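Supplementary notes for students who missed Thursday's class. We covered one full example, reproduced here. Read the sequence, then the structure, then the short commentary at the end.
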Amino acid sequence: MATAGSVPAVSIVVPCFNGGRFIDQLLVSLASQTLRDFELIIVDDGSRDETRAKLATLDTSIKVILQDNQGPGAARNAGIAQARAPIILALDCDDNIDPTYLEVTVPLMQSAPADVGFVFTYLRMTGLREGVVACYFKLFDQLFINRAPSCVMFRKKAWSDVGGYDPAMREGYEDWEFTVALAAAGYRALVVPRPLFIYRVSNEGFLLSVSSRKHAELWRRIRDKHKDLYRLPALIRLWWTTRDIPGDLTLLAATELLLMATLLPDSWFSALIHRVRTFKMARTQSTAQMPARLT
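Structure (token representation):
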């Protein structure tokens, strides 16, 4: 890891709420990184279990921030605000990265044009579901379904330009909204087509336990915050100008999703999304099959 007096190449910011049991594996993952010029910042977001005691035992080279529970967006922002590096890697405490993750992504971010605001890789699922997710970024698709992983590397300046993660999104999707905000601000994404992010799939994970059950409300917050992007003329224009870029969503499918979100009661729409995700998580897929998609 970077020394205390130097400016590291990248700051790894990890929000942690009741996730003390995952810290040891996280540290093993980071200790194996082939690029060592990084600092680690862990934000304890008001944990109510043994997490705070666990974090108190960590080496002093790891910066630990303690705060009352404010949600994942606020926790990420707190860590990034104290980060010394111009490049940030957002990583959840129950996930891990391949030993070459930083070696591949940091030089890519450093050498990219200034309008490249964020970088991410494909992901490999472990836990309830196995397989590789071929993540991508196409703004039209991203407005309707999150196709970027939670583990994203970005310029600290880009984070500042969009006002950071939205702390009001306490129930999740703050990472989804953040990528939409980056694209709306004119930043591009680069995608590394290698599964270097190791994503833990669990029924206890925030996506299934909280966010999916509030999908209708959370997606509406994103649409309300970025109203100009979701106006019909803007959507049609965006679809038309990006129609040759590979993606998953047709204009018809996107329109159907928007109609369901508008016409169905929130509880019905959220239940539908949650059921689809639960069904997909229950289906074990191997990496030998076609790349899976997370909705």
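Commentary. The first strand starts at residue 10 and ends at 16. Strands lie at 10-16, 38-45, 63-67, 87-90, 96-97, 116-127, 131-133, 152-155, 188-201. If anything here is unclear, bring it to office hours.
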